[in-house]
Design a protein that fits this description.
alpha/beta, TIM Barrel, eight-stranded parallel β-barrel, three-stranded mixed β-sheet, 12 helices, globular, binds beta-D-glucopyranose
């Protein structure tokens, strides 16, 4: 028997991307030297085509990010052409009646900022504030939602502890702590400056949240470690910024079953990994329900700002989307104020240190010929977007 899960009226359906991962031609940021993205999807020039695709797929919201290194290529020097270009992009979405969600910082720093120590520098929140003021003054009329920072905690752990993102430091706990502090400050400053320019603007941040559970539920030590980890991983930032968020942006990809070990680093993630993506990431939709449930106490609207899977063969994507939507719907039915879902990503794109291998797109890119093809799962998602309901 068919079952229909209706979403609230006005629910937003769309997809997300970020500048460095799709635009192409970005050569002046902290990734450009070691991890050049080259032409990427050439979104900078071909955005109209891609927005046509989003429209055709019945999406009514699109998330993109501004590239700081284009807008402020040298400290204090703002590039008119770049900002006008973004204005054109946003207008083009508006013309299609697609709402715009704009991230001000998605993992890339202008070169000049990195030379000054990037996010470990206590002056960086001030630099960020100047850039935000310029961008918001110019673009606010075309922006429905501002996201200040994408995945703050990961943007500290990957560059300073794990060494996966530039500046690729390992176990630099001081650098990491400085970055956490500075990002937090940057968000608060940005929130204030956006509100001073546009008091009714909707401002939030997109954070990677995970449901954390103990591997050995019987072990008191394992449970204590999980509580501490959960606080650091999911709650600390929310508690610190909750007064400066008009909505919560949730990026959800995986859950974490935490195992305690006797040797350094004392904790590890050990998921069951029954079903995994091309990147080896466990597919675990039910934990998104737990993440949303935990957030109810903040009484803020929630947008799923990212949720996606690396699945080159498009074997799991349709089910992945549907399974996640099922638990979102359940949470809504139980009172959670979830107002939108943005799949990551519209296009296959540059997956940071993993390069062009992983394929997250609703649209498959052929980078050699710079052509693209809409994947079957994208049409299935489009039906959901159109009907505002999930038919099971
Ligand atoms: C990031 C994206 C990334 C995606 C898939 C998110 O954590 O915001 O930039 O491509 O995950 O790994």
């Amino acid at each position: 028997m068919k079952k229909e899960l209706e979403f609230p009226q006005g629910f937003l359906w769309g997809s997300a991307c970020s500048s460095y991962q799709v635009e192409g031609g970005i050569e002046n940021c902290n990734w450009s030297e070691k991890f050049p993205a080259g032409k990427a999807c050439d979104y900078w020039n071909r955005y109209e085509e891609y927005f046509d695709v989003a429209e055709k797929l019945n999406q009514n919201v699109h998330r993109l990010s501004l590239e700081w290194s284009r807008i402020e290529p040298e400290e204090g020097k703002f590039d008119r052409e770049a900002i006008e270009h973004y204005k054109k992009m946003l207008k083009s979405l508006k013309k299609r009646k697609i709402k715009t969600m704009v991230t001000l910082w998605h993992s890339t720093n202008p070169m000049w900022l990195s030379e000054k120590g990037g996010w470990a520098n206590f002056k960086t929140p001030g630099y960020f504030q100047n850039y935000v003021a310029f961008a918001v003054k110019e673009l606010n009329p075309y922006v429905d939602f501002w996201l200040t920072i994408n995945e703050l905690m990961i943007s500290c752990s990957h560059p300073y502890l794990i060494g996966k993102f530039p500046p690729q430091k390992k176990l630099d706990f001081i650098g990491c702590a400085q970055a956490v502090f500075n990002f937090g400050q940057a968000h608060k400053k940005a929130y204030k400056v956006i509100k001073s320019i546009a008091p009714t603007a909707k401002v939030g941040m997109a954070e990677n949240y995970s449901f954390v559970e103990a591997y050995d539920k019987e072990s008191p030590f394992n449970n204590v470690v999980v509580s501490v980890w959960n606080f650091v991983r999911n709650q600390m930032l929310l508690e610190y910024t909750k007064k400066e968020q008009d909505f919560l942006g949730v990026n959800y990809y995986f859950h974490e079953k935490i195992r305690t070990e006797k040797r350094f680093p004392f904790i590890g993630v050990q998921n069951d990994n029954k079903k995994i993506s091309d990147l080896g990431v466990e597919i675990y939709p039910s934990a998104l329900y737990e993440v949303i449930k935990d957030m109810k106490k903040y009484n803020l609207p929630i947008y799923i700002t990212e949720n996606g899977i690396a699945d080159r063969g498009d074997k799991y994507r349709e089910a992945f989307i549907k399974e996640h939507l099922k638990v979102i719907h359940k949470a809504i039915k139980e009172g959670a104020d979830v107002r939108g879902y943005l799949y990551w990503s519209l296009l296959d794109n540059f997956e940071w240190a993993d390069g062009y291998g992983p394929r997250f797109g609703l649209v498959e890119m052929d980078y050699e010929n710079m052509t693209y093809k809409i994947r079957p799962s994208a049409y299935k998602y489009a039906e959901i977007c159109k009907g505002n309901k999930l038919i099971l």
